[in-house]
Structures are given as C-alpha cells and as structure tokens.
Amino acid sequence: MKRTLITLLALGALAAPAVYAAKPPAKNITIAAAPDTVRFGRSVTLSGKLTGANNSGQQVRVEEDPFPFDNAFSPAGAAVTTNAQGEWTFSDQPTVNTHYRARSGNAESRIVDVGVRPAISLALSDYTPRVGQVVRFFGRFCPERDGIRVGLQRRVAPNQWRTLRRPMLKDIPGETCSSYSKRLAVRRDSRYRVHFFGTGDLTEGNSRSRFANAHL
Q1: Residues 46 and 110 reside in one and the same domain
Q2: Hey, is 62 helix, strand or coil?
Q3: Which pTM does this prediction carry?
Q4: Cβ(62)–Cβ(75) under 8 Å?
Q5: Contacts of 131 (CB under 8 A, 6+ apart)
Q6: Which domain covers residue 158, as residue numbers?
Q7: How many structural domains compose the chain?
Q8: Contact, 92 vs 46, CB < 8 A?
Q9: pLDDT surpassing 70 at residue 14
Q10: Rounded to whole angstroms, what are the CA distances from 144 to 107, 123, 194, 196?
Q11: Run of H or E residues at 3
C-alpha cells in the first residue's frame, strides 16, 4: 500500500510540469501613432497587434485622455476587431494634444502621445508692394483661441526667423476659428510666416510662408 502511494505521488509530480507548460501565454497588445503630430482637422491612425493565443477576431478598444491629462481614459470611439494576424487599426481626429492607449480583455498597451498643431492661414493685402509701403498681414487660426498672441515673423537667414509683431487672435462671430490682422511696412523683398508658440493643449506650429516682392 505504501509503495503504491509513493508511486502515485511520483507520477503526479512528473505530470505537474506538463500541465503548467500547456498554459497559454498571456496576451499583449501594442500601439503606435502615425503621424505623432497632426494638423487641426486631420486624423491620426492608431494601430498595433494583439499577441497570444486566439488573437484573431478579438475586440480592441482605443481609449483617449485629452489635455489636461488627468489619466481618466475614456473610449475614443467604437471598438475595432483584430485580423487573422492579430493586427488592428483605428482612426481618430483629436482636437487637442491627446494620450492614447489600447485595451483588449486584460491586455493593455503603453500610452502614446499625439500632438495637435493649429491650422493657420496667412495672406497679404499686396504681394508686390512699393518699398516702404504698409501691407496688411491677416489670416485665420483654427481651433478658436481668442486672446492668444501669435508671432508675425520674417525670414532673416535659412531656417532662421525673427518675430516682428505679436498680433492677438480675435473672435469670428458664428465660427469656431479666430482671426488676426497686422499692418507692417515692407522695406525689402522678404518671406513671412505666422508662428504659434504652443500651449498645453496645442503644439507649436506655423502658417505657410508668403513672399512679398518689394519694388521701387
């Protein structure tokens, strides 16, 4: 009887590692953002892969934590489903700097940061002014940020710009964008742009540059 009991215990000890080895690996999920900074009004593509057993056809929920980043994540939209390889893709249109993560069951990804830069336009009242003529520089800034100042800049060297004026953004009635306007004497051929210096909710950014061809 004693020998039989010892034999059964020994067989059980040998079988235990086999049961442990058969346990499926834990699932993991990755996330990446492309691009990591978007112009206001455009979308970011978030994608990743769910690894582990039975990773195809699984639901993935992308969660967001927009500025001011209190770690209170909420669903960014409807859940997506992984393909046969466990890969997933999700598109979103953030309006401010946003943190994202992905979840599937108990699997949770790392957090990725996506910056949002404003959409800034720039126009001149005259692109071929006389030397010394006062020209109006104006445009729009989206999203609306009334009361913030931007920088009207002139290029002074390759990749080097100098701030000449700091116009304030003003309300456009009935719209979700702000406007700005500044008058400046143009004394030479120059290239100009408007620069946003960045805030907690938006990253810094620039308008397209415009060239003023001054003549006598």
Answers
A1: yes
A2: strand
A3: 0.84
A4: yes
A5: 186, 187, 188, 214, 215, 216
A6: 119-212
A7: 2
A8: yes
A9: no
A10: 38, 18, 16, 13
A11: helix 2-21
